[in-house]
## 1
Amino acid sequence: MKKEILIGFLVAVFATICGFYLYVELFSKFSFDETLKIIKEQNLFGKVLGLAAIPNLFVFFIFLKKKQDYRARGVLMATILTVIIMLIMKFL
């Protein structure tokens, strides 16, 4: 059971990282490094992280459709952790 939750958590973290990378590459006119500097300077990391977590939605529903409820729980836990990080970033 714990192993399945961990797998879901790790899949969600990987999906968020991939979502972040794809968002930066597809929607920015600048290079990856320049975009990261702009995000840091304008304090947009929380907002971009929120958009990067959208692939978790697809992963969550795939796990539910395959009746892998514990993995879906792991995805949900990772998404909640992402929201907490976004809130911390907003208030710092």
## 2
Amino acid sequence: MSIVKISEELHSIARARARVFNRSINMQAEHWMRIGKLIEENPDMTYRDIWKLLLEESEAETSDAN
């Protein structure tokens, strides 16, 4: 595990979002990083497209686990 230093402002925003989505702050930051990575790799995709892709990945992981 690595430590990533972020601004206090971004940390506060992550803390608030984490509460809303019932995630840890680390899970929230990882979620944002995954979205950012996908957007950089797929600049023509919209946020909605990225969200659908993440949802499909999650559903596939759930199916594979069963």
## 3
Amino acid sequence: MESHGGTCTQDPREAARDHISPGDFDAAFTADMPRLRRRLLALTGNPHDADDLLQETYLRLSRRARARNLTHQQHPYAYTCTVALNLLRDSWLHPSRRERTTDRLPEAGWDGGLGSYEASATALALLSVLSPKEAAAVILVDLEGLTHDTAGERLGAHRGTVQRNRMRALAKMRAALAG
């Protein structure tokens, strides 16, 4: 960088070196891709996992700052391999982030909100059977997850009163569902 009268300007050669085209990055990555895939295949033992890891490495490196680093590396394969191995290590350390296969079929598809609407309508119908104190006890304890003590504080009642109102409400709701 040169300084002229208090302003800094970048040398045109540095600017040309810092500006890389996507084709330069792709060429640098593609040159090392077969060798990297063989290494990842040896480490994972599964061609699908190796391909997924190779793709994740490409995406990680293709971000702007790292793409510039790859093309300016003295040993781009070593740099690429380090990124891939860090991604693999991360998948080993956090197995919950990995995809898992299962024998179960996925849940039924979205029904357009009909199931949610039916559940809300049923809940409202059941709550309408209850007295206001009973409904408040059920909403605070069962739906909001408050303790009997906290629900009692909110309602200005003793915890035993909240428990009794809740028990009566649950009994009424069971009877309404059964009949």
## 4
Amino acid sequence: MDADYWHKKWSQNDIGFHQDDFNALMVKHFGGLDLRDGAHVFVPLCGKTRDIAWLLQEGFRVTGAELSQTAVEDLFADLSLTPVVTQDGALLRFATPELVVFVGDIFDVTQHALGAVDAIYDRAALVALPADVRARYAKHLIAVTEGATQFVLTFTYDQTTMNGPPFSITADMIVDLYDQHYALKLVDERAVPGKGLKGRTPATEVAWELLPF
């Protein structure tokens, strides 16, 4: 799975993964991170998620990273924001005072570009990545945010019933990726409504807190 896969998804508007409502587990539990007013939240692989609107409403500063420029342009349009667009190394930087989104490869996002990060909201990033990329992604997040607290949403389901993404991320996988850097807390879980993921398979959505030692 490469960049062309995701560019094709966005160009064809094949974005069944996009949710029109705020994520219920985020709304219920993100406050448990006990972040200060105006804290800086990083949202990797953000797409045009409505959850960014909620984070902004709650008074957070938000930085996102997204491969698709189409998604980012849609995001700012949906928020009625007009960004200033500049080149930042290999990335395009879309910026307003309250929201910055980098367009390009997540692995080109640097600590210098992000600045100090108070928390990461991984709403659909880890589950979008195939197994051979996840360890590199996890290490990169830790490096560019200096091990910031994470709120991570995953899905668990019988992977034999459907090809990802989203991929099934088990508790053991979370442990393998993160337990050397964080105390792991399974916060909540809920059944994916309706007929499950993509209307094809029953699944459970799981919320994790990853708290630095």
